[in-house]
Amino acid sequence: MLDNVKHVILVLSGKGGVGKSTVSAQLALTLKEKGFKVGLLDIDLCGPSIPYLLNLEKQDVHQAEGGWIPVYADKEQKLSVMSIGFLLNNRNASVVWRGPKKTAMVKQFLTDVCWGDLDYLIIDTPPGTSDEHITIMENLKTVKCDGAVIVTTPQQVAIEDVRKEITFCKKTGIPIIGLIENMSGFVCATCTECTNIFSKGGGESVAKLVAVPFLGTLPIDPRIGKLLGKCCVTELPDSIWAKMFSTIVTEIMAKEA
Amino acid sequence: MASSVGTPNNAPEHCPGTQSESAGKASACAGCPNQQICASGEVKGPDPGIELVRERLKDVDNKILVLSGKGGVGKSTVTALLSRAIAMRNCDLNVAVLDVDICGPSQPRVLGVMDEQVHQSGSGWSPVFVDDNLSVMSIGFLLSSVDDAIIWRGPKKNGMIRQFLSEVDWGKLDYLLIDTPPGTSDEHLSLSTYLSQADLTGALIITTPQEIALLDVRKEIDFCRKVNINILGVVENMSVFVCPCCKSLSEIFPATTGGAKQMCMDLDVPFLGSLPLDPLIARCCDEGRDFVNELPDSPATKSIIDVVNNLVQSCKKKQ
Fold first, then answer.
1. Does residue B239 sit in the same domain as residue B181?
2. Domain span at residue B13?
3. Which pLDDT does position A203 carry in this prediction?
4. Do B212 and A49 touch (CB under 8 A)?
5. How high is the pLDDT of residue A46?
6. Which residues bind [4Fe-4S] cluster 2 (chain B) (predicted)?
7. A5-255 falls under which CATH superfamily?
8. Do B88 and B18 reside in the same domain of the chain?
9. For A215-235, what is each residue's pLDDT tens digit?
10. DSSP-assigned letters across all residues of chain B
11. Which of A160, A169, A218 is the best substitution to test chain B (most B C-beta atoms within 10 A)?
């Protein structure tokens, strides 16, 4: 399983809607810009967001002898993507599955996709600490997993769920690369006043409390939601997002050395 | 791997499932201690939990599921705001909130009862009272620390949900709002099964305006139609942001595809209103304070009251 993948990075959060998929997509795109071969696996089966975020919604997965051929996000085939979204024939169709079926699908994604040689495989997850997470964790025991990037938003109600996710990582022995605080402040376009809509600093203080590295804060920037497949580092080089992702990727690369 | 329908945790490998035609008769059943029961067909009847839930909830007039395919859109916040607003509207109405988000319970914090405990009595679990006429039940009350993670696969979550539905001593209720986790999986299927005979009023669907959320919310509506859950309506949360400094409006989560209103028209479901993105709501929720009561003049409070009125109408129509 994943024999030709050098590094596996999980993107986790106990809370939904904090930006796991956006962070996963930008992380994959930034690593690709740095010249790596990257795979992005979306195991959110009930709410896959990656096809939309990478502007790949109409794409199909093809079946070959060796397994599924992932969808390539670029001509050079440096970023390959797999999501259940590619397997649904209608974007409004729901996937109403109980745990065992989800487990089987996640396993299939891990074993039956022809990723080829990859430098990095980013795995985007649904919120929670249940079937999908247990399955990924059990299967990654045999594969070297670099660790998890945990995404949160600053307010306590999100932090509480994220602390549960950190407990999950600690209990199951998944190393934590670090914690990112997303949606930290919004700068009004009219008066440039920064409002902390969901408060501020929650991520950093919880990182300290549970002793995991804090990677930084990302503000709410409506331009990010419109990137759809483009990388923030190349498209919005002056944004805080671009700086943050350059730093995070440098840190991840340094880990390897 | 276990089959998906009615396979007990301790089933032998290749168990056909207790509800299956070949239950007790397959080769895998040889030697299973439950073979005789399965073969007798006794277990083929409906889950006994369904009857227990019906019995327990028969004095609850309106049972409302709060759903959203997407996480973090404000299901728990809106559930808390609406239930508080309904309870405040008339102190003779009894309102309760059941939090079935097992992996990420938020109600204890949002309703400001974090350190409370649940007590067990002869008639079942007593819920925690936020106010004289507002009670709540959540797995959060059963955990000893906020760091405790519930690392459970589906069947254990289902067992917990069944217990919540059949063993909480709510008393007589006018409204029961059931707050759910995101998705269309175990929790949602269990709720729809257990509430199938309990006269469920319908589902209230929460979304935010941007396409990435609507994408998942459309799936949730598809789910409701698949399992025959009536849709009471859709609420759009975090619609616009009013800068507290200059009062100008910003669309933080831009409705590039027309937002919830357009989706409701496309899918022919009622639109119940939108709620603004107000930093004070987020703060009140974090601190467990009652936003509606503390800031009665805020435009957000007005929107909440509008949504409550529309929701009450929608419930009446169902009856």
1. yes
2. 1-47
3. 96
4. yes
5. 97
6. 243, 246
7. P-loop containing nucleotide triphosphate hydrolases (3.40.50.300)
8. no
9. 999 999 999 999 999 999 999
10. ---SSS--TTPPTT---TTSTTTTTSGGGTT-TTHHHHHHTGGGS--HHHHHHHHHTTTEEEEEEEE-SSSSSSHHHHHHHHHHHHHHH-TT--EEEEE--SSS--HHHHTT-TT---EEETTEEEPEEEETTEEEEEGGGG-SSTT------HHHHHHHHHHHHHHB---SEEEEEEE--SSSSHHHHHHHHHTTTTT--EEEEEE-SSHHHHHHHHHHHHHHHHTT--EEEEEE-S--EE-TTT--EE-SS--TT-HHHHHHHHHT--EEEE--B-HHHHHHHHHT--HHHH-TTSHHHHHHHHHHHHHHHHHHHH-
11. A160
